[in-house]
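Deliverable D2.4 — example input (C-alpha cells):
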C-alpha cells in the first residue's frame, strides 16, 4: 500500500514539473538554450572520439592484417556497429529520453575504443573487429546527438539547431587527427603499438561525452517536447513548435535518401585516402593534417549551413551538396599524388558536401515527424545511414584495390548525381499537394 502511495506521489511530482514547462514558453526557450549548451560540450568530446577510427582505423588494419585489400574493413565494421547502436539509441531516446539514449551510446563507444587498444596490444584481429563494432556506438551517438537540439526548436530554428550541435564537434574532430603522432608516441611509451594510440584518446573522449550528458541533461528536452505535443493535441492547439500529429512518410524517405547517399560517398573516398597517401610516401603527420581538415570541413561550416537551409530551403541546399560531392570526387581523382595541398582541397570539398547533405536531410526528417515517433524514426533512419557507411567503407578497399583510388573517387562523385532528381521530384509533389489544399 505504501509503495502504491509513493508511486502516485512520484507521478504527481513528475506531472507538476512537466506542466510548468507546458504552460511556460519562457521555460521552454530557456531549456532549449540549455540543451544546446550541453550538446555543444558533449560534442567536443564526441568529435575527438570520432576522429580515431576515421584517421587510423584503416592503417591499423593494414598493419595487423598485412594487406591493404581489407583496409576498408574497419570503417565498415564500426559503421556497421553504429547501425545497431543507432537503432538502440533511438529506441532508448523514444522510451526514456535523449539523456538515457545518448549516454548509453557514448559509454559503449568508449568501451569499444579501449577494446581496440587491447586488441592491438595482444595482436588479436578478432578482438579488433569486435571492438570496432562496439566503437561504432560512439560514432552513431555522436551523429544522433544533433537531434537533441531540435526537440524544442521551432521549424525555422531546426536546421540551425542541428548546425550548432555539429559545429561544436569541430574542436575535437580536428584536434583528434592532429594528435595522431602525439598519441602514437604516448602509446609507444607505455608499450602499446603506436597506431593504437589515438584509440586511447577516443575511448576516454567518448566516456567523457557520456558523463556530460548523464549529469547535465536534466530535464530531458525530448520528454518535455512529447508532453507539449500531447497537451497541444488534447486542447486542439498548435503553438510553440508547430508540433503536429502528422507524419510525412515521403519526407522521411527523401531525407533518409539524401543522408544515406552523402554518407556512402563521403565514407568510401575518405576511408581510402590515408591508404592512398601512405602508398605514395606521405607520413602520418601529413595524413593527420589532411583528415583533420576534412573533418573540419564536415563540421565547421555547420552554423552557416544551418542558417542557409532554414532561409534558402532544403531542396536548394541538397542540390548544392551533391554537386560539391561530385566536384570533390573529380578533384581527388585528378589531384597530383605527391601534392598534400591538392588532396587537402579534395577532402575539404568532400567534407563540405557531406555537411550540406546531412544538415539538409536532417531538417527534412525533423519536418516530417512529430514527437510521438520522432526519436524512434530518427534512430531507424540513422541505421540506414550507418549501413550505407559500412557498405561504402567495406567496398572502398575492394574498388581501390581492384582498380585504383581514382576510379573510386570518380565513381563516388558520379553517384552523387542520383540524388538531385529525387529531391526535385519530392519538391514537385509537395508543391502539388500544397496547391491542392
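Example output (designed residues):
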Amino acid at each position: 500500500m505504501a509503495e502504491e502511495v509513493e508511486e502516485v506521489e512520484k507521478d504527481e511530482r513528475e506531472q507538476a514539473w512537466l506542466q510548468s514547462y507546458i504552460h511556460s514558453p519562457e521555460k521552454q526557450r530557456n531549456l532549449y538554450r540549455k540543451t544546446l549548451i550541453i550538446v555543444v560540450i558533449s560534442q567536443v568530446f564526441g568529435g575527438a572520439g570520432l576522429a580515431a577510427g576515421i584517421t587510423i582505423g584503416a592503417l591499423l588494419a593494414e598493419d595487423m592484417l598485412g594487406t591493404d585489400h581489407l583496409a576498408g574493413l574497419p570503417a565498415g565494421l564500426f559503421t556497421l556497429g553504429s547501425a545497431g547502436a543507432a537503432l538502440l539509441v533511438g529506441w532508448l531516446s523514444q522510451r526514456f529520453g535523449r539523456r538515457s539514449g545518448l549516454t548509453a551510446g557514448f559509454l559503449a563507444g568508449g568501451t569499444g575504443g579501449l577494446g581496440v587498444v587491447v586488441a592491438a596490444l595482444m595482436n588479436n584481429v578478432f578482438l579488433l573487429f569486435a571492438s570496432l563494432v562496439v566503437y561504432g556506438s560512439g560514432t552513431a551517438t555522436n551523429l544522433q546527438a544533433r537531434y537533441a537540439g531540435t526537440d524544442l526548436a521551432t521549424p525555422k530554428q531546426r536546421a540551425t539547431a542541428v548546425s550548432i550541435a555539429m559545429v561544436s564537434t569541430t574542436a575535437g574532430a580536428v584536434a583528434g587527427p592532429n594528435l595522431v603522432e602525439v598519441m602514437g608516441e604516448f602509446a609507444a611509451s607505455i608499450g602499446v603499438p603506436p597506431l593504437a594510440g589515438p584509440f586511447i584518446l577516443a575511448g576516454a573522449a567518448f566516456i567523457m561525452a557520456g558523463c556530460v550528458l548523464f549529469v547535465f541533461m536534466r530535464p530531458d528536452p525530448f520528454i518535455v517536447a512529447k508532453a507539449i505535443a500531447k497537451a497541444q493535441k488534447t486542447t486542439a492547439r498548435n503553438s510553440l513548435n508547430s508540433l503536429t500529429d502528422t507524419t510525412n512518410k515521403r519526407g522521411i524517405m527523401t531525407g533518409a535518401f539524401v543522408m544515406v547517399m552523402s554518407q556512402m560517398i563521403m565514407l568510401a573516398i575518405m576511408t581510402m585516402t590515408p591508404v592512398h597517401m601512405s602508398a605514395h610516401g606521405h607520413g602520418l603527420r601529413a595524413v593527420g593534417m589532411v583528415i583533420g581538415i576534412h573533418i573540419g570541413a564536415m563540421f565547421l561550416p555547420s552554423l552557416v549551413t544551418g542558417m542557409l537551409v532554414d532561409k534558402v530551403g532544403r531542396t536548394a541546399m541538397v542540390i548544392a551538396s551533391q554537386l560539391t560531392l561530385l566536384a570533390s570526387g573529380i578533384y581527388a581523382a585528378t589531384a597530383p599524388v605527391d601534392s598534400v595541398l591538392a588532396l587537402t582541397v579534395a577532402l575539404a570539398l568532400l567534407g563540405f558536401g557531406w555537411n550540406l547533405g546531412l544538415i539538409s536531410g536532417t531538417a527534412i526528417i525533423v519536418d516530417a515527424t512529430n514527437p510521438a515517433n520522432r526519436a524512434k524514426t530518427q534512430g531507424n533512419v540513422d541505421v540506414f545511414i550507418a549501413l550505407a557507411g559500412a557498405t561504402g567503407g567495406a567496398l572502398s578497399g575492394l574498388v581501390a584495390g581492384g582498380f585504383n583510388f581514382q576510379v573510386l573517387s570518380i565513381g563516388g562523385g558520379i553517384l552523387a548525381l542520383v540524388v538531385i532528381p529525387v529531391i526535385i521530384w519530392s519538391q514537385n509533389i509537395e508543391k502539388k499537394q500544397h496547391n491542392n489544399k
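The radius of gyration is 22 Å.
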